[in-house]
């Protein structure tokens, strides 16, 4: 029996094994039904069979954009999840083939080719939909400036600052998507996808913070959707992206290898990325950033430490206030840290900051874990 025949006859078994693997290694997927999870994967398996039987195995007749578009509607779903689910499918197929016979290298390469192309297509459409590449940054800023009733002399500077901050990562995203349309090897695609994730996260975080921070000062809280996840795995993934994109040394300190917590994953990511961007912006470039994570007295404590200019006490007292700026600077509009405060407040937690010459600047996120 040929490799194509095995895959064709064992399609249901492949999907079943793949589904089981997803539920074990990607808990986020368990909240969706079978048909939603499978999506276009059955058609992908058919495309693999067709490709294996084709004389020209470089021509792949399959489109995974629908899969990426559907995944963009999944809550707490990221590019990392898309890549991982396709890789798990690849492993599932190869394990099944190994049980039957030795698959020739040429046919293994053909299977890899189809799945790698599926990853590229799904990732591209995922970011176009999920991260809002078509956002008109200036219109968003103009609307917010009107809502804030900024004085005329500050209004234009406010709009230009926000527009620039939004357009920079979005332009990076568009450039990376253009690169994905070219002939690249798997290693190059992986690097581009890492840059995509960083840029898209920055854009999404700024847009959401920008809109959500307007709620500060009202009785309305940021909505919280609790989920259980491995906080250390999440931190490792985020740190890895920063190390690749920013070329910075980051140390993660924890007394355990795995730590499952219950907080809002998306809000945590946004708060953590705000603190990381703050550390990168104000810390010394030659010094490392230290992240610590611990569970103490039913409280999850995440610390971000960097060394740089000591923050004066007067600034520390106001640093989490909405639109607060240090006198004489125009490095930002006080959105990020104000939103961090809203995140922990919504969790009924706390955020603390200290800054001195010996220990540097340390921000602490404290989430209750009753």
Key traits:
370 residues; alpha+beta; Globin-like; Helix Hairpins; Heat Shock Protein 90; 5-stranded mixed sheet; two-stranded antiparallel sheet; 57% helix; 12% strand
Q: What order do the strands of the largest sheet run in, or round the barrel if closed?
A: 2-4-5-7-6
CATH topology title of the largest domain? Heat Shock Protein 90
Q: What's the number of structural domains?
A: 3
CATH architecture of the largest domain: 2-Layer Sandwich
Rg: 23 Å
- What is the quaternary state of this protein? single chain
CATH superfamily of the largest domain: Histidine kinase-like ATPase, C-terminal domain
N-to-C span: 57 Å
Mean pLDDT: 78
Instruction: Give unreliable regions as ranges.
Output: 327-333
Assign the structural class, choosing from mainly alpha, mainly beta, alpha/beta, alpha+beta, or little secondary structure: alpha+beta
Shape: elongated
Q: Care to count the β-strands? A: 7
Number of separate helices = 14
Domain Histidine kinase: 161-370
Catalytic activity: ATP + protein L-histidine = ADP + protein N-phospho-L-histidine
Organism: Marivirga lumbricoides
EC number: 2.7.13.3
SSE blueprint and pairings:
Elements: H1 3-9, H2 11-25, H3 34-38, H4 41-53, H5 65-71, H6 79-100, H7 105-130, H8 137-148, H9 152-180, H10 186-212, E1 227-230, H11 231-246, E2 250-253, E3 260-263, H12 265-282, E4 289-296, E5 299-306, H13 313-316, H14 336-346, E6 350-356, E7 360-368
Parallel strand pairs: 2-4
Antiparallel strand pairs: 1-3, 4-5, 5-7, 6-7
Helix pairs in contact: 1-4, 2-6, 4-7, 5-7, 6-7, 7-10, 8-9, 9-10, 10-11, 12-14
EC number: 2.7.13.3
Catalytic activity: ATP + protein L-histidine = ADP + protein N-phospho-L-histidine
InterPro entries: HATPase_C_sf (IPR036890), HATPase_dom (IPR003594), His_kinase_dom (IPR005467), HisK_dim/P_dom (IPR003661), HisK_dim/P_sf (IPR036097), Sig_transdc_His_kin-like_C (IPR004358)
